[in-house]
Amino acid sequence: MGRPEKPVNRTVPARAKLADFLRERKTRAGRTYEQMSERAGGIPSKATFERAASGSSVPSWETVSEFINMTITEEEVSASALGPAFTRGLELWIRARRATRAPYYVHKAPDPNLISTEADLLRALRRQHVWAGYPTPGEMERMSGIGELPSSTTRRVIKGEVLPVDPRQTIAFLKACYVVRPIDLEPWLSAAARAHAHLGAANKWNIAHQELLAQTEKSQHQEEAAPRPLRIVTLDTESPEQDMAA
Question: Shortest CA distance to 19 belongs to which of 46, 74, 59, 47?
Answer without folding.
Answer: 59
